Amino acid sequence: MIHIVKSNETLTSIALDYRTSITNLLAANNITNPNKIYIGQEIFIPTIPDPNTIPFIISISLTQKRLTLLSEGQVSKVYPIAVGNIATSTPTGEYVIVNRQPNPGGVFGAMWLSLSKVHYGIHGTNNPNSIGKAVSLGCIRMHNKDVLELSSIVPNGTKVIISP
């Protein structure tokens, strides 16, 4: 996939967001000096499939507290979610799923889907009463059965659009 460098990003921060190494990014992009990247530069992320080749898109509405799975542009499924609270809001923007971990344990429930923003993800919960509320530390919480279903459908590289 291609990442477009934004203001205040470094090769280190990009590598962290996509859970890859700077070495991989340097090699895949023929970059000799990691300090010489610029805003608008295209960085190839070799570990993530091109989201444009994936028929699914996840659309998240923070105000409605709903995650909508689109397949070929059509609504396939809608799930209730919990989102970040006022002090630790869920970041808006466009991301991709970069990896996953079944049974991460604790507050993360039955599945963790990492987003291309380090420390953020879509995950299950050990507190199902939190669904429908703004109570997380910025992640998207789902019922465990829902996140397991979602993770069985969407591959890594799936685009995730988070709107206010």
UniProtKB/TrEMBL annotation:
Family: Belongs to the YkuD family.
Domain L,D-TPase catalytic: 56-163
Active site: 123 (proton donor/acceptor), 139 (nucleophile)
Recorded GO CC terms: extracellular region
Residues covered by the LysM domain: 1-45
One annotated GO molecular function: glycosyltransferase activity
Pathway(s) the chain acts in: Cell wall biogenesis; peptidoglycan biosynthesis
GO BP annotations, alphabetical order: cell wall organization; peptidoglycan-protein cross-linking; regulation of cell shape
InterPro entries, per database record: LD-transpeptidase, LD_TPept_cat_dom, LysM, LysM_dom_sf, Transpep_catalytic_dom
Name of this protein: L,D-transpeptidase family protein
Presence of keyword Iron: no
Alphabetical UniProt keywords: Cell shape, Cell wall biogenesis/degradation, Glycosyltransferase, Hydrolase, Peptidoglycan synthesis, Transferase
